[in-house]
Amino acid sequence: MLKTNWIDPIVKNALREDVGSRDITTSSIIPKNLSIKADIEFKQKGVLCGIEIAERVFRLVDENLRFLPVAKDGEWIEKSREVAYIEGSASSILIAERTALNFLSRLSGVATITKMFVDQVKGTPAKILDTRKTTPGLRVLEKYAVATGGGTNHRFGLYDQVLIKDNHLRILRKTPLVDIVATAKGNTLKKTIVGVEVKNLLELKEALKSKANYILLDNMSVENVREAFLLRKKLGGKIELEVSGGITLDNVKDYAQVGVERISVGLLTHASPSIDISLDIVG
To answer: In order of start, what are the domains of the chain with their CATH numbers?
Structure first.
């Protein structure tokens, strides 16, 4: 459930971007007192996400509009199915239309591709995670869409988890990895999750000696990940392994079947196709 105080600033910015001072087309030709009915329809199948946000768009444009959702976020929607009905001022509906559909199309697209990845790894220990590769200003909504599609949210930003990446390690190249992790642990709250990124088995062997919560295997082949998994088993490590980089629908199952616990997929939020959704005037 998204909080209104999170949604409203984003929606208001989107409306300001699209409407500006006024909708000059609608205001010049549509009678102010004209009322209409409309519905929102999926033009292709997918997972619905963002219905509350769409409703908020219409209500911020005109609180007197009647908005009736007939489907819930997370539902699989078949092509040609209506997900909401709207009634009220024609001008208000036309003004809110594109912004509401943009949110619905984008978020439903993220939720749909996430579900496709989640379905691919069913029966394995792996969970699908998102990344910070999100649209600036829309991260909270896009991560909500990932969760709606059955995925798991990774860290929300730089503030809630430690992830020691390649550039950190380059800067601190003279410091042993075990010491870097220990420093991070010592300088954050006890419950803070600490992850470390490695690019090869030599770095992994060092990382497994640390007290990191998880190790991110960056851009490794399936075979290398399998070797990493066996190395962890051999050394008796209990640190979770995460795979990231180059993960697609075609190869995600191969990675998952190795036995890793985490697979992070950037394209969930940076390259997911939008769902085709339309608003149609009824009658």
So the answer is: 4-113+273-282 (3.90.1170.20), 118-270 (3.20.20.70)
